[in-house]
Specification:
By secondary structure, the chain is of the alpha/beta class. The protein folds into three domains: about 10-80, Winged helix-like DNA-binding domain superfamily/Winged helix DNA-binding domain (Arc Repressor Mutant, subunit A, Orthogonal Bundle); about 85-195 and about 365-380, Nucleotidyltransferase, domain 5; about 210-360, Nucleotidyltransferase, domain 5. It has 13 helices and 15 strands.
Length: about 400
């Protein structure tokens, strides 16, 4: 039960957000379909759509095709106006930063990435990030209206800062204030994999899923989750540190202070160390060329990830698990092995199967996820949160 009162203004703003998200979820719906989906009255939908069209966020794309002809007013199809706004996404990994410019419908128009030196000082990092962002945003033909940032580490969403990224040597990085003071537009920050989960909800195959888990295999392993149709975010730290769940008690020491963490065995960093290759692309190429040792390495990583995921499934029994990152390449055996092991290990999965699949957003899932944060909070939920 929510104890947040709904005054008239807040209710109107909430309804506006629901309508915008419904247009994405339903894919070119009519006013009648939005009213039915949101349980709002046709008159309310008409008023909200009128305001959104005046803001140029929504457009009419013509009459419904293939539907039953009825007397009276034409049935008009609605869509988001992709040309109305541009949103920037910043995906901060341990080894590189990815930048993207996205439309309201999740299409990445421009993409750029740059490497991060090992153990870069956080102040030097901020200076480099701002410089790279300045150059990148200048290439957009339409000015960017907001910036979303998805980052590794423990992220304080409410205050817009990285609490710590111990493996990077960072602590209390005031990221949102630094970026917003330079660019003077709304900026939102969250853990990068929570952003990816939001992207799967807005644009991916989880639009109509109420309970799902998003897993990202990068230098580490992270997760984001929707429960009861809400993005899960715990107080302060946000949670979601799948890579630091214990795979092997008393195993390989981890920078977090524990031993046997999953990411010491099945992440990009672990694979690079084990196979002594210069990049994860080299490992993937080796797998595709039939290198038996590398194929076994990908299979073993799938088994290790599945062992930890089984505990999550037995606890929460989500409907779907989306896996992102280069190691989720469908030509590798990793996803197939995760699916096979979960089927074998989880007794709840035997009662109702959990769908396990690779993200359709490919390598751009990080910037789409980051930009999705700004899309939700600065565009869809504009004036609703009272923040930034």
């Amino acid at each position: 039960m929510s104890f947040i009162g709904q005054n008239t203004l807040r209710t109107k703003q909430l309804n506006r957000s629901l309508v915008l998200q419904s247009i994405l979820r339903l894919t070119k719906p009519t006013r009648q379909e939005i009213a039915s989906f949101t349980k709002l009255t046709p008159a309310t939908i008409t008023n909200i759509i009128g305001e959104l069209m005046a803001e140029k966020l929504v457009v009419e794309t013509g009459s419904m095709e293939g539907g039953e002809k009825r007397a009276g007013r034409k049935t008009i199809v609605l869509d988001l106006n992709e040309e109305s706004k541009r949103i920037a996404g910043v995906h901060i990994r341990s080894d590189r930063v990815e930048l993207g410019i996205m439309t309201l419908k999740g299409k990445v128009l421009q993409f750029h990435h740059f490497p991060l030196p090992d153990k870069i000082d956080q102040n030097d990092f901020l200076a480099i990030l701002i410089k790279e962002l300045e150059s990148f945003l200048a290439t957009s033909k339409v000015p960017v209206s907001c910036i979303g940032i998805g980052s590794v580490g423990l992220v304080d969403f409410e205050n817009g800062r990285i609490l710590e990224a111990e493996h990077m040597g960072w602590e209390k990085v005031e990221l949102v204030s630094a970026i917003s003071s330079r660019f003077h537009i709304p900026v939102y920050l969250d853990h990068h994999v929570r952003g990816m989960a939001l992207a799967e909800k807005l644009f991916g195959s989880c639009k109509n899923e109420t309970d799902f888990l998003c897993v990202y295999l990068g230098q580490g392993i992270g997760s984001g989750m929707y429960l009861r149709d809400q993005l899960f975010r715990s107080d302060l730290t946000g949670a979601g540190e799948l890579g630091h769940m214990i795979y092997q008690p008393g195993g390989i020491p981890c920078w977090c202070g524990s031993r046997g963490c999953l990411e010491r065995y099945a992440s990009e960093a672990a694979i690079l160390k084990e196979f002594k290759v210069s990049s994860i692309d080299d490992f993937i190429t080796g797998c595709k060329h039939g290198d038996e040792n590398m194929l076994k390495g990908a299979t073993d990583a799938g088994k290790q990830i599945a062992t930890v995921l089984t505990s999550i499934i037995n606890m929460l029994h989500v409907n779907k698990i989306m896996v992102g990152g280069k190691l989720a390449d469908p030509e590798l055996p990793l996803i197939t092995e995760i699916r096979k092991e979960v089927r074998h290990l989880s007794f709840l999965d035997k009662k109702r199967r959990v769908e396990i699949e690779a993200s359709s957003m490919g390598e751009q899932v990080g910037v789409i996820g980051a930009a999705s944060l700004a899309l939700l909070y600065a565009v869809f939920n504009a004036n609703l949160t009272g923040k930034r």
